[in-house]
Amino acid sequence: MAKPKTNDDAELIKEWSLSSAATLGSSVRAKGILLEIRARLPAAVRKSLDIEAGVLTLAMAETAKSAFRATSSIISNALEGIESLPVIPREIQDILTISTTERQRWLNNGRLPSAGTRTVKLRGRARKITFHVFDPRAVEDILDRDLITVWREEDAEAAAENRRRAALKAKLTRSLRSSKKPSTEGSSDDASRPKLSGWEEFRRDGLLR
Questions:
Q1: Mean pLDDT along residues 180-187
Q2: How many folded domains does the chain comprise?
Q3: What is the span of the domain harbouring residue 30?
């Protein structure tokens, strides 16, 4: 039999459901939103906010009513316009099911439009890193139009064409090298001389001495 809760065990609980427009169907994106909102909370209450199945839950002790109300207000304000929160690299890779290599290649060739850069300090380190972020609506458009499939097909065709050109270039190079090799046929002086009419008579008369 479960032990009944005492007054000390009682909790204040509030939940916020994240829309699909906010998470873009990604658990990684949902966790990113959680971390973003936690960062705006006082350090002492950050762990009181958690997420499960796209639902943010704030749970605090019954005795912390004042802190609970203040924290709830911060979270509600932070969630306003959360659908516009820029998408970071690990999130876009999960949303679009792409690799790091694909993300970098398509960012460099302009297929993945950057919405700017963000610089963060790594936890416990002095070093900072800067990375590109993406407009969630642009990411949603790529997802809806299934552009990833199109881009992969185009890349496969380009790779095949590059292999064909490389093979042709290698073949041409080998052909040019072969044509530059000296021929061993007819290398004697007599064989290389042109056959002129009356040449033997000219030599026999001694006119070349």
A1: 59
A2: 1
A3: 11-83
